[in-house]
Amino acid sequence: MQQHQLEHAGFLLAYSGGLDSTVLLSLFARLRQQQPHLPVRAIHIHHGLSPNADQWAQHCRQQCKQFNIALIIEKVRLNPTNGVEEAARRARYHAFKPHLQPNELLVTAHHLNDQSENLLLALKRGSGIKGLAAMQVRSELWQMAIFRPLLRYSREQLEQYALAQGLNWVEDESNQDTHYDRNFLRHGIMPALRQRWPTIDRTFQRSAQHCFEQQQLLEELLSPLFQQLYRTADRTLDIAPFHTYSRSKQHFLLRLWLEQSAVEMPSQRQLNELIDNLIFARRDSQPQLQLGQRVIRRHQHRLYLTALYADISTTIIKVELEQSVTLPDNLGTLCFQVRANGLNVIWRQTEKISKFVLPPPPPQQKIEIRFAYSGKVRLAAERANQDIKKIWQQSDIPPWQRQRTPLVCYGETLIAGLGVFIKE
């Protein structure tokens, strides 16, 4: 490991207890003997897939104690919609992220053989050059800084080191199951390729590096345009000029946009569907495309990425003054406080707190929160009635946000759309 890679950083080692990560643990333990103040921790993800999972966790505890490295053990549950392998990988990285401290690198034990397998799996999926670029020694994944110091070494070299050092590791019995794609390549395909072409892993590594460099060049060339289209404040993308771009250019800009929000890259078919059925849909339509638990939506020549929202249009919540009420679908809480000039309303959400002052309600008048309203609204005595749709449009509120804006009603009279309008 080069010195410049270690400066001003802490390290969180992904430690499974297997051969590769045990070598990684040993190397960092030796490194810390030379640099006693080097911040090093380890994390073991307990998938619960094997009957031996508890024994592996105990083994990891013992090894980390022996190396004097603090260990975190995190249990995860899998959602195997896209297969167990992918589910386990996603669960691991989602579990790593909350434990990473500022200026700390996640360190994995990926090696040269893993790179070959990743490249072939990417080819099997029909990936573009970004997928074929496979892994780099330093990269970012799901907004986490990743360090792979063993990437240039083969598994054979790691095993030689482990045997020479007398290291102990566990063997995952599932690694022999060729039902899994990676194991099929590892045991059924790669040995034959290495026998025919002994340097095939190095050749694959070069191909992956070429793809990485081409991807970097494309990003460098298109980054200035992307920055013109991308709005950082709400992470939206301007698609007004998309009709002037080639399909390849459209694809690349969309991938850059999705990458900004750590969204899994869509397939070629999904990208084309996004362009044809959403970006170029009729102006008066409200198209959307679901990607996992996220939804891409269009409004006023911009693309928005939102969560998958529940339908709360029929929800009605009765308000008790001076008490907090919980809003549906993770919209936070509201509290109505009586003051001399009316009602103070405090809306607490995950990322912000908003405060509003509403006119006082009539005596004994019930107060309700709703999320759907149709008809006209008079915002002030001297103003004419307006259809609420006009108010939403004038305030540039996207259609999906209109049904997520708490509407405060005194009886059947609409008083406010919090954050948008308040009746005087």
From TrEMBL:
GO cellular component terms, semicolon-separated: cytoplasm
Binding site for ATP: 16-21
Location of the protein in the cell: Cytoplasm
Pfam families: ATP_bind_3 (PF01171), TilS (PF09179), TilS_C (PF11734)
CDD domains tied to this protein: TilS_N (cd01992)
Domain Lysidine-tRNA(Ile) synthetase C-terminal: 367-424
Catalysed reaction, written as an equation: cytidine(34) in tRNA(Ile2) + L-lysine + ATP = lysidine(34) in tRNA(Ile2) + AMP + diphosphate + H(+)
GO-annotated biological processes: tRNA modification
Listed InterPro entries: Lysidine-tRNA-synth_C, Rossmann-like_a/b/a_fold, TilS/TtcA_N, tRNA_Ile_lys_synt, tRNA_Ile_lys_synt_N, tRNA_Ile_lys_synt_subst-bd
Domain-related comment: The N-terminal region contains the highly conserved SGGXDS motif, predicted to be a P-loop motif involved in ATP binding.
Function noted in UniProt: Ligates lysine onto the cytidine present at position 34 of the AUA codon-specific tRNA(Ile) that contains the anticodon CAU, in an ATP-dependent manner. Cytidine is converted to lysidine, thus changing the amino acid specificity of the tRNA from methionine to isoleucine.
HAMAP family in alphabetical order: tRNA_Ile_lys_synt
Family: Belongs to the tRNA(Ile)-lysidine synthase family.
Name assigned to this protein: tRNA(Ile)-lysidine synthase
Naturally occurring in which organism (per UniProt): Chelonobacter oris
